[in-house]
Design goal:
Layout (H helix, E strand, L loop, with lengths): L2 H9 L6 H13 L4 H14 L3 H12 L16 E4 L7 H11 L4 E5 L9 H5 L11 H10 L2 E5 L6 H11 L7 H14 L4 E8 L8 H17 L3 E8 L10 H13 L5 H17 L6 H13 L2 H12 L6 H8 L5 E6 L4 E6 L1 H13 L13 E3 L7 E2 L4 E7 L2 H14 E4 L10 E5 L1
Parallel strand pairs: 1-4, 2-3, 4-5
Antiparallel strand pairs: 5-12, 6-10, 7-9, 7-11, 8-10
Helix pairs in contact: 1-3, 2-4, 2-8, 3-8, 4-9, 5-12, 5-13, 5-14, 9-10, 12-13, 16-17
This protein binds uracil.
Uracil binds next to helix 9.
Length: about 425
């Protein structure tokens, strides 16, 4: 096989054979294809697309680029959730421990920031000493003891995605139904999941900006996963504004801790967690239906059992033993903190989530180039949601930056990302839009 021939086929809008895609996925994993070829591959797929058969073939090839886990029956029912990515989407941090508290086993193999969106691993690594790189043995032991682990795809699991993901992050090649499907499902199928719930985001802060595109992505994900033997359904959820009211790694962990401990519950985050968790418990056979499952998740959040499991997970993965009680002292803080207030009165009618995400990346909260170090403390907090009636001088959000110059740039980005109008918005978007099964 020859990488150049595969790239020429893709460039010309033809789908390479399953064997050719398998060879390319192996080459991603073992270095036989160069970085330039990886970048060209991603751009060609974004521009020309793969056929449905090509998408399935690439997904399975990337799954098989490494080790595929298997779970023995008789233990906790295994289930997981994955989001297609958004702004202030820290649901996984609440959901993994809540599912574990309800009796599920959750081997959550997560990603880093991608394009303008944040990544679960980067968020968790804002917790001092937290380790996301666990061996398979350690992952299994943690699942037995605690019920959940949130980890990176090790060199053993879907290594092809690890390389392609890092290249897509910095080459403007994320927005592709084929690449998103192959990326998410290669990891999830390699984790040997029998059940999976997907959160397909739609709106200005998502990769899919229209409901039609989100439906197509949800359909591709659900059909590919079910076809590969993993019981899967998807919720299409709103990303026309940040999910939590913060965007940035440590800042989102703070929102999670406030919600988990009940000190300041973020309603949209709470509702998304219950809806996705209800669906996950149903798929895992731990609830008769999604409504019952959502009730179980709510209880685990309310009675503190999810918080307890979260604390155990942080300790098991190298973080502070007292994190649930002392998170405010343990998380890093920025040196420059600036309130951004409304110049004139108005209602928040729209938010450009993509621009907010890029503002966080530009402050150092994401990567501009592969391998860049992240500044976990930077980002935006207290983001006013759509529909807020702001008086002149009232808070739009707070910028957390490393320097005054970075705060200036972030302030300009926030001001142009927020649209204020004289009248309230006609529609305040619903959080859960559709279910695809
Ligand atoms: N999450 C992933 O793991 N991969 C994508 O491509 C998008 C979201």
């Amino acid at each position: 096989m020859d990488a150049r021939a595969i790239l020429v086929q893709l460039r010309d809008g033809q789908t390479p054979s399953a064997d050719a895609l398998r060879w390319f996925a192996q080459g991603l994993a073992n270095g036989a294809v160069s970085d330039a070829q990886v970048g060209a591959f991603a751009m060609a797929v974004v521009q020309r697309g793969l056929s449905e058969a090509g998408r399935v073939a690439l997904t399975l090839a990337m799954r098989d680029s490494g080790h595929v886990l298997a779970w023995k029956s008789g233990g906790r029912p295994i289930v997981d959730k994955h989001s297609t990515g958004g702004i202030g989407d820290c649901t996984s941090l609440l959901l993994a421990p809540a599912l574990a508290a309800c009796g599920a086993g959750v081997p959550m193999i997560s990603g880093r920031g991608l394009g303008h969106t944040g990544g679960t691993l980067d968020k968790l690594e804002s917790i001092p000493s937290f380790r996301t790189g666990l061996s398979e043995v350690a992952l299994r032991a943690q699942l037995d003891q605690i019920g959940c682990a949130i980890v990176s795809a090790s060199g053993e699991i879907a290594p092809a995605d690890r390389r392609l993901y890092a290249v897509r992050d910095v080459t403007g090649t994320v927005e592709s139904i084929d690449l998103i499907t192959a990326s998410i499902l290669s990891k999830k199928l390699a984790a040997g999941l029998p059940a999976l719930v997907l959160d397909v985001k739609v709106g200005s802060g998502a990769f899919m900006k229209t409901l039609g595109d989100a439906r197509a992505l949800a359909r591709a994900l659900v059909d590919t996963a079910n076809g590969a033997g993993c019981k899967t359904s998807a919720l299409i959820t709103d990303m026309s504004q940040p999910l939590a009211d913060a965007a940035g790694n440590a800042l989102e962990v703070m929102v999670v801790m406030e919600t988990l401990t009940g000190s300041n519950v973020n309603t949209r985050l709470w509702d998304a967690t219950c809806a996705l968790g209800g669906e996950a418990l149903r798929l895992a056979g731990l609830a008769p239906d999604a409504a019952n499952g959502a009730g179980q998740i709510r209880e685990a959040l309310e009675d503190g059992s999810a918080a307890e499991v979260f604390g155990q997970m942080v300790a098991a993965q190298g973080g502070p033993l007292d994190f649930v009680d002392r998170w405010a002292d343990r998380l890093p803080a920025s040196t420059v903190i600036r309130a951004i207030t409304a110049d004139a009165a108005g209602y928040v009618t729209a938010i450009d989530g993509h621009a907010l995400g890029l503002a966080v990346v530009a402050m150092g909260g994401g990567r501009q180039r592969e391998g860049d170090r992240i500044n976990p403390a930077v980002g935006l907090s207290a983001l006013a949601p759509i529909g807020t009636d702001l008086a002149r001088g009232e808070l739009i959000c707070v910028v957390h930056a490393a320097t005054e110059a970075a705060a200036d740039r972030a302030e300009a980005a926030v001001r142009s990302a927020y649209r204020l109008g004289e009248k309230p918005p006609k529609i305040v978007p619903k959080l859960i839009l559709e279910r695809v099964a």
